[in-house]
């Protein structure tokens, strides 16, 4: 079903299935009893309610994300939608939600030519009934790359980095699902969720294409 993945690569996609962490979506092995929080989220203190991820950031999925972010891979939107549709329960989680992509700073978006998180959100909306993409946030600080930073450094790097977008007219009663390409430590999604929480939004969840 993929346009840009061969059958062998498609078979190597590690879709996330239950049971998984209720905060970030990382899968558990075997039967889980009690609270479903994984080691990735023990120090996170999430501002959002729950999260899901479509697949693990390995093999072909890692290649797709890198192609999307660094090699102008807008052509992958259809395959991202197919990947999301193939992850058990993922599309249901997105139905009737307002999908808010994590924003890029205008300099970085100008250099890249697009915001990959918005493309991912668009792909999700293409397969989730009633879902709509709204760019409700802006990145007001041109932060350093998060790639090589640990959790405390990521949190410090993102302090006051996000704000509500000018002219945003969303009503506070909507269910918001923040969308990003990868869940690593959750620092970026948590920083965005904090802005939305302060703006009066209470129904906040997150969804990512991959978990790193």
Poorly predicted runs: none
User: How does the major sheet shape up?
Assistant: 5 strands, parallel
Can you tell me the overall shape?
globular
Structural class computed from helices and strand pairing = alpha/beta
Share of β-strand residues: 15-25%
Overall residue-averaged pLDDT value: 91
Rg calc: 16 Å
Q: What is the helix fraction of residues, given as a range?
A: 25-40%
Termini, distance in Å? 24 Å
- The strand count comes to 7
Number of helices: 8
How do the strands line up in the largest sheet?
A: 1-7-6-2-3
Secondary-structure element string: HEHHHEHHEEHEEHE
Q: Strands, helices and their partners?
A:
Elements: H1 7-10, E1 50-56, H2 59-70, H3 77-85, H4 90-94, E2 98-101, H5 106-112, H6 116-127, E3 132-133, E4 137-139, H7 151-157, E5 162-164, E6 175-183, H8 187-198, E7 203-211
Parallel strand pairs: 1-7, 2-3, 2-6, 6-7
Antiparallel strand pairs: 4-5
Helix pairs in contact: 3-6
């Amino acid at each position: 079903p993929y346009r840009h993945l061969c059958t062998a690569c498609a078979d190597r996609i590690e879709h996330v299935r239950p049971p998984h962490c209720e905060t970030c979506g990382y899968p558990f092995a075997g039967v889980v009893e009690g609270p479903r929080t994984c080691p990735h989220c023990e120090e996170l203190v999430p501002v959002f309610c729950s999260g899901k991820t479509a697949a693990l950031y390995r093999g072909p999925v890692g290649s797709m994300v890198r192609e999307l972010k660094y090699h102008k891979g807008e052509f992958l939107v259809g395959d991202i939608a197919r990947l999301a549709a193939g992850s058990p329960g993922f599309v249901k989680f997105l139905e009737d939600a307002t999908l808010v992509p994590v924003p890029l700073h205008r300099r970085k978006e100008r250099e890249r030519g697009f915001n990959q998180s918005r493309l991912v959100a668009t792909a999700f909306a293409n397969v989730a009934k009633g879902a709509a993409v709204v760019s409700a946030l802006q990145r007001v600080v041109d932060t350093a790359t998060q790639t090589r930073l640990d959790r405390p450094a990521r949190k410090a790097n993102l302090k006051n980095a996000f704000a509500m977008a000018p002219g945003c007219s969303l009503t506070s009663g909507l269910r918001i699902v923040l969308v990003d390409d990868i869940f690593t430590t959750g620092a970026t999604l948590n920083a965005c969720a904090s802005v939305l929480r302060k703006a009066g939004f209470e129904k906040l969840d997150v969804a990512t294409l991959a978990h790193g």
